[in-house]
């Protein structure tokens, strides 16, 4: 795991080495084990690398790396789990390697042999990398299928820049720092800006499963090389001859075997590694499989809260630790700890990621690093594949008993009237009545029921927080359109139009998919890569720790996306298949416990000193000079929340995160 950056420029006397050094230094935390820069002979192209040495610790594996002919140059962030297999194939084809077992060198020789498109389709791993082809004079960028690793880019005044984090791009003071209003609008819906947007106007992120070519003149051309909708066919197994009675067993065995292989391949490391252990089924399954694969005690790490112990999962974590004889570590945090961390949080996030899990994630990552750990396995991605959220179960019931009959039988004119009559009177909280009114609004607009598991401020509430007239002038994305990026809904005032664009892609291949598959597909497009995986990447890498996610192994994802809803949820039981798959490994108390989720007591903290700080930050920010927000309404939500009259914690945290980012990076 590393930090990568690079520049293509056409400006005379441009100080490219100095600029690259500044970019690379800004993300030194991603790779404190070494740094280097490569420049082309004409000083127009440069690549930089900050190394976190995980595999092949020798200096020969340093980057940027090139072939012996000095025609192909690469800077790489991530891990290629099948690099040994690919190396053997390439050796048989006549390629000679200079490193002992560096997975980076696979990219150099693989690109020369197969080209970029064929190379990325052969790779099994998590990655973001850049290749400079000196003969063709092109820069090639790639991001892994799921979006585990980030990659940002920017074109400005004849120069093209890319980096693992936005702060590297902003290391050049010539880059303008301006907020994109469309991104702000979508951020309030989804707690993060959807790819390829960021909150910074003109700075973009390469979406998951995309490759991009950039010429020396800065012309961009992007292409998606993989998508979950290509393999989402609920009839696949029936066509394959699996009888109805044997399908459940087939699914259970398929999940178990693929997960075991996913965990095993992620043991690839020449440094110490461990597991974040909450005591839930996902992290516990990680520990159970790893413990059977290792010949020494596994290091496990858990975070809890000293002030609000009802959120703690320490007992379950200790139970799993005891069962599998792990070397267990704990850290307890409180409101004061969170307050002291905030300035670092907004720095390392780069752009707002309004997930309060970032706070406990920082402290457990810090705990692991102090214990000498460089690689950590986590349970992200399980809930999205197996319906692990209570909110998802509510959506499924809502879709069946209200949404389906309402959208199919109620005429458009009546839907419009229902919206006018009900939505203005919706409560300002996120309760069930508000959710009903929100569904009525979405049906009237022709939107989908499910936007995201991280849908922070609903349509019915957003107009109360925002001054809509400010968004009348749209910021379009001609550069992204010309580069062939998917831009449906990006410039729309309605975030639901963005979600509709995702569903349209799914329906092209899978028009009759079930509700749960729709939800999972939507999450793989937005929430999973840009919120959940970015919180893991940004926070863990701020401590120079590499996070690995076995539940998001390509083979497992492609397998689970084919499984129909009726098997994933049985008799009102979420994660039904996953629980069956690990029933023999884990205690029944862990298998059947109510999901708590990796959370933080932000609702309670906002009533104390933390809330006072948040109020002052939000109300006194210069962001209000733009006129985006209804400032009085926000102030009143703070008053209501702190008085215990209603819970507005998610709305307030989302806005506080945005304003703090603005104060740190733009103001």
Compact description:
With 667 residues, this protein is α+β, with helices and mostly antiparallel strands. The protein contains 29 helices and 17 strands.
Topology record:
Elements lengths: L1 E8 L6 H11 L8 E5 L5 E7 L13 E2 L5 E9 L2 H10 L11 H11 L1 H7 L2 E9 L4 E6 L8 E5 L2 E5 L2 H4 L11 H10 L12 E3 L4 E6 L4 E5 L11 H4 L7 H19 L7 E4 L4 H13 L5 E7 L8 H10 L3 E7 L1 H15 L8 H13 L4 E3 L4 H5 L3 H20 L2 H11 L9 H14 L13 H7 L12 H5 L12 H15 L5 H11 L1 H15 L4 E3 L5 H7 L4 H4 L7 H6 L6 H4 L10 H4 L3 H11 L11 H12 L6 H17 L2
Parallel strand pairs: 13-14, 13-16, 14-15, 16-17
Antiparallel strand pairs: 1-3, 1-9, 2-3, 4-5, 5-6, 6-7, 7-11, 8-9, 8-10, 11-12
Helix pairs in contact: 2-3, 3-4, 8-22, 11-12, 11-29, 12-21, 15-16, 19-20, 20-21, 27-29
How does this model look, in words?
- With 667 residues, the chain is of the alpha+beta class.
- The strands form 3 sheets. Strands 2-3-1-9-8-10 form a 6-stranded antiparallel β-sheet. The chain has a 6-stranded antiparallel β-sheet with strand order 4-5-6-7-11-12.
- β13, α9 and β14 (299-305) form a beta-alpha-beta unit.
- α12 packs across α21.
- The longest helix has 20 residues, at 390-409.
């Amino acid at each position: 795991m590393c930090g990568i950056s690079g520049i293509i420029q056409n400006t005379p006397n441009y100080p490219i080495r100095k600029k690259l050094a500044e970019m690379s230094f800004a993300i030194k935390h991603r790779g404190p084990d070494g740094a280097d820069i490569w420049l082309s002979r004409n000083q127009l192209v440069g690549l930089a690398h900050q190394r976190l040495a995980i595999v092949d610790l020798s200096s020969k594996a340093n980057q940027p790396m090139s072939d012996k002919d000095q025609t192909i140059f690469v800077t790489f962030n991530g891990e290629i789990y099948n690099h040994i297999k690919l190396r053997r194939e390439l050796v048989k084809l006549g390629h000679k390697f200079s490193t002992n077992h560096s997975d980076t060198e696979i990219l150099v020789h693989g690109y020369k042999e197969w080209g970029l498109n064929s190379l990325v389709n052969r790779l099994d791993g998590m990655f973001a990398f850049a290749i400079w082809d000196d003969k063709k004079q092109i820069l090639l960028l790639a991001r892994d299928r799921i979006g585990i690793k980030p990659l940002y880019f920017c074109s400005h005044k004849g120069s093209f820049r890319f980096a693992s984090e936005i702060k590297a791009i902003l290391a050049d003071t010539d880059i303008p720092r301006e907020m994109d209003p469309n991104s702000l609008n979508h951020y309030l819906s989804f707690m993060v800006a959807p790819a390829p947007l960021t909150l910074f106007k003109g700075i973009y992120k390469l979406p998951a499963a995309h490759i991009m070519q950039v010429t020396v003149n800065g012309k961009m051309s992007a292409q998606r090389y993989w998508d979950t909708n290509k393999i989402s066919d609920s009839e696949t197994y029936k066509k394959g001859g699996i009888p109805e009675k044997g399908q459940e067993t087939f699914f259970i065995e398929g999940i178990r075997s693929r997960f075991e292989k996913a965990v095993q391949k992620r043991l690839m490391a020449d440094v110490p590694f461990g597991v974040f252990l909450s005591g839930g089924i996902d992290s516990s399954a990680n520990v159970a499989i790893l413990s059977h694969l290792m010949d020494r005690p596994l290091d496990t790490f858990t975070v809890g809260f000293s002030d609000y112990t009802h959120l703690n999962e320490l007992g379950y974590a200790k139970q799993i630790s005891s069962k599998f004889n792990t070397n267990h570590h704990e850290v307890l945090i409180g409101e004061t700890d969170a307050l002291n961390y905030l300035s670092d949080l907004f720095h390392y996030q780069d752009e707002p990621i309004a997930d309060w899990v970032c706070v406990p994630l920082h402290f457990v990552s810090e705990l692991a690093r102090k214990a000498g750990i460089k690689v950590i396995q986590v349970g992200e991605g399980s809930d999205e594949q197996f319906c692990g959220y209570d909110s998802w179960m509510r959506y499924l019931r809502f879709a069946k008993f209200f949404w389906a009959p309402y959208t199919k039988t109620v005429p458009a004119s009546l839907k419009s009237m229902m919206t006018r009559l009900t939505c203005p009177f919706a409560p300002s909280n996120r309760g069930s009545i508000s959710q009903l009114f929100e569904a009525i609004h979405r049906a009237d607009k022709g939107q989908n029921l499910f936007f995201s598991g991280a849908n922070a401020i609903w349509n019915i509430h957003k107009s109360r927080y925002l001054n809509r007239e400010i968004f009348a002038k749209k910021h379009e994305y001609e550069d992204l359109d010309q580069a062939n990026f998917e831009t449906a809904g990006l410039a729309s005032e309605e975030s639901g139009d963005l979600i509709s664009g995702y569903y349209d892609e799914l329906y092209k291949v899978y028009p009759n998919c079930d509700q749960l598959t729709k939800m999972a597909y939507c999450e793989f497009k937005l929430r999973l890569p840009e919120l959940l995986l970015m919180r893991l990447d940004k926070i863990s890498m701020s401590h120079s720790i590499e996070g690995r996610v076995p539940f998001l192994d390509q083979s497992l994802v492609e397998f689970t996306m084919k499984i129909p809803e009726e098997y994933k949820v049985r008799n009102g039981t979420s994660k039904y298949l996953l629980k069956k798959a690990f029933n023999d490994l884990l205690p029944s108390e862990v298998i059947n416990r109510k999901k708590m989720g990796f959370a933080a007591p932000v609702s309670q903290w906002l009533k104390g000193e933390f809330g006072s700080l948040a109020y002052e930050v939000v109300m006194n920010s210069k962001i209000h000079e733009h006129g985006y927000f209804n400032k009085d309404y926000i102030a009143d939500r703070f008053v209501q929340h702190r008085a215990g009259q209603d819970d507005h914690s998610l709305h307030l945290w989302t806005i506080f995160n945005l304003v703090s980012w603005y104060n740190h990076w733009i103001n």
